[in-house]
UniProtKB/TrEMBL annotation:
Residues 58-90 have a biased composition (Polar residues). It is found in: Cell outer membrane. Residues 263-735 form the TonB-dependent receptor-like beta-barrel domain. It comes from Acetobacter malorum DSM 14337. This is TonB-dependent ferrichrome siderophore receptor.
Length: 761
């Protein structure tokens, strides 16, 4: 009995020209095809998750076209239909024993024949172990590093905005606060992880993940898992999970430098190196992104506020420094260690509509908001494969800290300085986790796991007139289990259950089932899933205590967790020798105990109006349902098309009111064409319909009194590899210069152009 060796693997495809296969190089399977399965295991170890591809929704990862690598390799049409895998995801040795026709663990099949269709996709998020996307019932999209590079998307919000089932809302340009709505649910109902570490921001009021300062450098894959996922991932995975994996280094030493400049004072630099030597492998990417001069206030708001010339010309400035590191060491042939880290330091200076509202008080002065963010996410793993790969286990230890400072710069009309005493928002999270997978061969697999979290927040202000200090913490201990199997390779299924015990908001049991049926000899796959989820109240909502002149914000320690029951069902079809894939999924989610902000007036002896008290409470119910559809077509060996459509209906069932910032229709179309060797063009059209929102002008301040107008944007990118060392690239965003807001009151960038070069060795 041989022992399986596990090493963290990333993408199995490198788009490199030559060797007689135009536009395709067979990704090396190395030990993945051997009984040892060495390079396939450690990726799951570091991420601790399962990778899925399309599952009833848009298959956004595999387009049949390779893209530039992180080091700037030129994109080419995958004439050989290079298989694609969610880079950076872990794969256990058991995956190597999948049914015939399935890719080796952690990667998809590598096809060298131009006659082959779209490549298969392997997912790790849905089941916490690698499986084919076709064999799982859950709805998943996998975005690879090749796709990110081809489209030249430098920030995470730009990538997520194009994916089905998601609406991304950003207050202004790069660096602005960003919220992710999934299937009509609130942003804090989406759990976000990087390399197996949960990174929702505990320092925010809602505990939602803010993607505003998150750049894509170093990312190997992004998996978007839709539907209630608390059965595996616990609190905050009520609407779904976004799982991000760092790319792993392999092969020779490969350094690179990328320089980019363009509109809005953009000047970006990124450099790093990846590779492996002996038992050690590494990938390190450092980046600096700067923009200056983007004006985010719409003209109608300026007219309403009677803005002066200086205020109409004021722009935002953002400075972002990030580091992404992934290290691994193979101690023995079946035991390895891994370490990942992502660090962000950002300074964001803005002039917003709210600043402009106080023109009568500020005169000609500009009062700017200053936001500083320092974030660190670190996770280490130990991975052991035993009994010839029959038992695979991972032990992880992770730490996250997020520190934000908010203050103002400038002076009021009377010469008094603005709010120079900063507000501080700090959070920390410590996570210890273990899970093991038992491979029962033809009888399926059993997964068991346990996790423990310790979360802490600290909110304070140095304002001498109204000092504030709130500190609180909580502990969560959870255990979960899952069974996965198939019958005659026709009926595939998985079921899981999880128990969470929290020191603040009580205990919760959640579950999920997800079957998939392959109709023999038809290319038809029927998928379905059902499950429960819950969103925990944040420490801020439970315990915050802030007071000022005439107002106060009080936490509610009696808050209950929001709960959801949701299901979806979909059909996929493959035609034209797997060159054409299309499908659609219907989903329906019902939420109870919604946590919403509340307010009341407390009579005060020193005030004729009283004090306004703001807090939080459990109110109402909501229902979100809709359709997600996709079509992927490899028209030629050098030309591919991909489109997805999302229809969303989200209402508060207590008063039948529409939920804000949920557009009903969203359409995204992408095409990639490689007309000649080493040259690639990519185009994208994004359409979003109107939505209800908070107003920034007028006397009404209800949640849906404003109407956000629909918009569409057209983006183009080009990449050319001059030689093995130098590549040049360019992109044009919002070609038609559409002036649109999302959310209401915050303009998004108009027509913009960018270009640069990459040096690699």
């Amino acid at each position: 009995m041989s022992l399986f060796r596990c090493v963290l693997t990333t993408s199995t495809i490198l788009a490199v020209s030559g060797f007689g296969l135009a536009g395709a190089q067979a990704a090396t399977l190395s030990d993945a095809q051997t009984p040892s399965g060495k390079q396939l295991a450690h990726k799951a170890a570091s991420s601790g998750k399962t990778v899925k591809g399309r599952a009833g929704v848009s298959r956004t990862s595999a387009r049949g076209v390779s893209a530039p690598s992180q080091t700037g390799a030129a994109p080419q049409a995958a004439q050989g239909n290079v298989g694609q895998v969610a880079s950076g995801n872990g794969v256990s040795p058991m995956a190597a024993q999948q049914p015939v026709g399935m890719a080796p663990a952690g990667q998809t099949r590598v096809s060298l024949s131009p006659s082959q269709g779209l490549p298969e996709v392997v997912t790790v998020s849905a089941l916490r172990r690698p499986v084919r996307a076709d064999d799982v019932g859950s709805s998943v999209t996998v975005v690879t590093d090749e796709q990110i590079a081809t489209q030249q998307r430098r920030t995470l919000p730009d990538i997520l905005a194009r994916q089905p089932g998601l609406n991304v809302v950003r207050s202004g340009g790069f660096g602005g606060t960003t919220s992710i709505f999934m299937r009509g649910a609130n942003p804090n109902d989406v759990k976000v992880r990087i390399d197996g570490m949960d990174i929702n921001d505990g320092s925010s009021a809602s505990n939602a993940f803010d993607a505003g300062q998150f750049v894509t450098d170093g990312i190997g894959s992004i998996e978007i898992l839709r539907g209630p996922q608390s059965g595996l991932y616990g609190a905050d995975a009520m609407a779904g999970v976004i799982d991000i994996n760092t790319k792993q280094g392999e092969g020779r030493f490969k350094p690179f430098v990328r320089i980019e400049g363009g509109s809005y004072g953009t000047f970006n630099q990124a450099f790093g190196a990846s590779g492996s030597t002996g038992r050690f492998h590494y990938n390190v990417v450092l980046s600096h992104y700067r923009s200056d001069g983007f004006h985010e206030i719409p003209r109608y708001i300026e007219r309403y506020n009677e803005a002066n010339r200086a205020q109409r010309r004021a722009g935002d400035r953002n400075d972002n420094r990030s580091a992404n590191v992934k290290l691994g060491y193979d101690v023995t042939h079946n035991f390895d260690l891994g370490l990942t880290a992502r660090l962000i330091q950002a300074n964001y200076h803005t002039f917003t509509s709210y600043d402009q509202m106080f023109t009568p008080y500020n005169g000609d002065q500009l009062i700017r908001d200053q936001n500083t963010q320092n974030e660190a996410v670190v996770r280490g793993t130990a991975h052991l494969s035993s009994f010839g790969g029959r038992f695979d286990q991972i032990l992880g230890l992770g730490y996250m800290t997020n520190r934000r400072r908010y203050m103002q710069d400038g002076s009021y009309a009377d010469g008094e300085p603005a709010m120079t005493d900063p507000d501080y928002y700090r959070s920390t999270r410590l996570k210890v986790d273990w899970h093991g997978t038992v491979d029962l061969r033809k009888f399926g697999t059993v997964l068991v796991g346990a996790e423990h979290f310790h979360d802490n927040i600290n909110v304070s202000t140095d304002d001498p007139t109204a000092p504030v200090h709130t500190s609180a913490g909580m502990d969560t201990t959870a255990g979960y289990g899952q069974y996965e199997g198939n019958w005659n390779r026709i009926l595939y299924g998985a079921a899981n259950v999880r128990y969470d015990a929290n020191s603040r908001y009580g205990n919760h049991v959640t579950w999920r089932v997800a079957p998939a049926i392959h109709v023999p000899n038809t290319g038809t796959i029927i998928k379905a899933s059902a499950g429960s989820g819950f969103h925990a109240p944040s420490l801020y909502q439970l315990f915050v205590n802030q007071r000022g002149a005439g107002w106060a914000e009080e936490g509610n320690p009696n808050l209950k967790a929001e709960t959801m029951i949701g299901y979806d069902v979909g059909v996929e079809q493959k035609l034209l020798h797997d060159k054409l894939h299309f499908g659609a999924t219907w989903y329906d989610n019902k939420v109870r105990n919604l946590i919403q902000s509340s307010s009341y007036v407390l009579p005060s002896a020193g005030s004729a109006w009283g004090d306004y008290i703001y807090s939080y409470g459990n109110v109402g119910h909501a229902r979100m349902y809709g359709v997600e559809a996709f079509l992927d077509w490899k028209a030629l060996d050098t030309l591919s098309f991909a489109l997805n459509y999302t229809w969303t209906h989200a209402r508060d069932t207590e008063n039948d009111a529409l939920l804000q910032r949920r557009p009903q229709h969203k359409f995204n179309f992408n095409t990639t064409w490689s007309p000649v060797k080493d040259f690639t063009l990519s185009g994208n059209i994004l359409y979003t319909s109107g939505w209800r929102d908070y107003p920034l002008v007028g006397e009404n301040y209800c949640a849906t009194c404003a109407k956000g107008h629909g918009y569409f944007t057209i983006d183009l990118t080009a990449h050319y590899k001059i030689n093995r060392y130098i590549s040049v690239f360019a992109r044009a965003d919002n070609l038609l210069n559409r002036q649109y807001e999302n959310p209401v009151g915050y303009l998004q960038p108009g027509r913009a152009g960018y270009g640069g070069f990459t040096l690699n060795y």
